């Protein structure tokens, strides 16, 4: 699930043009591309309003004219935000909205650089540089290769954070390749220790991304998680559900296949618990590899190996009681995948409905987010707690279903968020603290928003709200804009 953020209340009064321009600028650099495009379509005057809008839209002729009229404009920072003109060009997502603006943005950047703009100047003396803004923009979709290549040519400094951001790009790693080539020439030692960058392709299960980084000299023995904390590369890859080929790449490049994860368990234990029989030869399945009998039991259940699972529990009835939370979480994994046979087997053999995965989600949370009404009904019929709160966002299953309807994960083979929400509402799920916020970045589907409105949900608790909005709970639920301007990775 994505990181939550604050709800944004709808405006009660129409914005004047200056206010619309401010909102447009924020949307254009935060990656809220739909909102930015809608604003410009509804108010075309935004385009010609200011130097800032010319920069964001890649209007190179207007940028050239402004620099000729006022040379200092090329480097003058906004007194309120500290952003320079080059920051705006580099952070703009308009190359994604309109490919015809890509060349204009690159030309605007060239004009600013020729006039003295610094690609490494931080915002307000402490924040992101223009180059870091360009790298961050790449993290939420595709990057502006032309701008990134130009900045590198003009002396931009590549940091580990920049590599990390571009490693999330959906452009076939072209921008990451540009940065790696530059870093290999000027800072090979930095690349060697840039293990955190590997976390990006690992989160996507990308063999190509991992191979690109390893070939560039990134050492998996320096692997770090998203927070920069040292971690086991192999364990992280198993945890992310990566293919065996990716995990083999790590071991071939020196990663320790038995280095434990944050829970103290080995990669082999995690692979066993998750039913990853394809990793048995690579990681091992015996006690020497850290695999316990309780792990083998959980894995057998998840793999729907009824004979093995029943044999294990018959041989040792204490297995259920001895399972640790990570092993019990196999129930949550099966529910998320819509595997009714595995869930039914686990419940039959004694898995508790209160089992939670590491973010505190129960099986009902996972099934609700996946939009699996069949699984939700099964769990409710077995007594699952409809108001249980997860451990990270403190939200009940209904909230997860609402957010899932907008984000549409693909874990269930039969997703139907409308049916899921109707089922939860019919079973008595509370809507008392849910609000619908128009224009929310994590809005539910139109169908689900309509269902919620029919149950009295509206902005700030008001009834009968118009417009499809994001669902939020106590102002800090699942919805929310990304505060760092990096596109809000999931």
UniProtKB/TrEMBL annotation:
The keyword Repeat applies. Transmembrane segments: none annotated. SUPFAM superfamilies: Ankyrin repeat (SSF48403). SMART domains: ANK. Keywords: ANK repeat, Repeat. It holds the Pfam family Ank_2. The keyword Transport does not apply. It comes from the Bacteria. Residues 470-490 have a biased composition (Basic and acidic residues). ANK repeats lie at residues 359-391. Residues 435-490 are annotated as: Disordered. This is Ankyrin repeat domain-containing protein. It comes from Trebonia kvetii.
